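User: Hey, my collaborator sent me this sequence without any context and asked if I could get a structure. I don't really work with proteins. Can you help?
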Amino acid sequence: MLNLHAPVQESLFKEHTSPERQRVVNVASVKQRSPFRYPGGKTWLVPEVTLWLSRKNRRPCHFVELFAGGGIVGLTVAAEGLADHVTMIELDPDVASVWHTIFSDDAEWLAHRILTFDLTSKHLQETLSQPTVTTREKAFQTILKNRTYHGGILAPGSAPLKSGENGKGIASRWYPTTLARRIRNLIPLRDRITFIEGDALTYLAGHGGKPSIHHHESVHEKHPSRRDVRAFNHSLLACLGVWGHPAGSRSCSVWIASAL
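Assistant: No problem. I've predicted the 3D structure and written it out in structure-token form, which is a compact way to encode the shape of the chain:
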């Protein structure tokens, strides 16, 4: 059982504890680069990571987003040049199919498929019921499901939106022009990003990582509520960082993991 009253390590972001940093992040203010609508995503973490990396004396040669999911942190680091190279790791085969496609020559196909898809309830069900033969077809189905199902949830048991926002139903989160633009904007980043479909912890062990948990949120109540425990666990997972100075390297490697 997790001991909520045990001493906690210092925050990964201890060098900037200004009042501005302590404000709740307005995720709408963070530039959206991912085509995913990801439940429990890391958008809130982006300002922390970008500020932290920008204040380092030397730019990291390698940034690894261990549990990529929607990939917003790794994409931002790559787009803003905050590390020489970014590796994104994701185990889920459906989510992985999207990143494989975006970082391949099929990215334009995916963008065009989204732009030209006629979204109706009947067409949605027909498309999602078709077996996928190629990775790019699986990627399209994944984006389609992520954008038309409740909360963007891909797990079995999830279902299409009914009323959605303002009664728009399945079209509530389906923005084909925006999604196509985000995908096309990622094409120039291919040389800066490596995507790995696999187990992040296996990768970490194979690259000499020794996990060190850091979090900047603690629960002080004598009898914490369930919400407090969830918030504590989320914070604990969200700010796991591991870094070291490999022999002969000019800078460090950085790992960031987050609850999804």
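In plain terms: The beta strands are 62-65, 85-90, 193-197, 240-244, 253-257. You can pass these tokens on to your collaborator as they are.
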